[in-house]
Write a structure and sequence with these properties.
The chain has a single domain, classed as 2-Layer Sandwich (Beta-lactamase Inhibitory Protein, Chain:B, domain 1), CATH 3.30.1450. It is α+β, with helices and mostly antiparallel strands. A hairpin with a 7-residue loop joins strand 4 and strand 5. The mean pLDDT is 80. It is built from 3 helices and 5 strands, in the order αααβββββ.
Length: 113
Amino acid sequence: MNTKFIWVLILILLTVLISNCSESNNRVTRDNYEQIKGDLTEQEIIAILGEPTEMSDKVTRGDPNLMWQKMIWRNSNTGDFIDIQFIGGQVQLHFYGNSNETYTGDLEGIGTI
């Protein structure tokens, strides 16, 4: 078999593998964002959006009911993202935007602490 042919085949296979491994979440859509409500838990959000692309450490000041965490879901194909902040395991703030644009999102806060 020709060595040049083998190298071309290897490059094609690597290209396919790399493109399939790129991290993108097709669940990051305006329709799914509209399902997010203030009483949803982290588990319910993950059921809608899948696993988050980014996640902060959990921060607490002693009271586990006030534990804070931020999670972000990104669709790298469209630039869309959903940013959600949880307190006590429930949605407190959520934001939908597009990283390719200056500002297109909605910021919604639920309740006060």
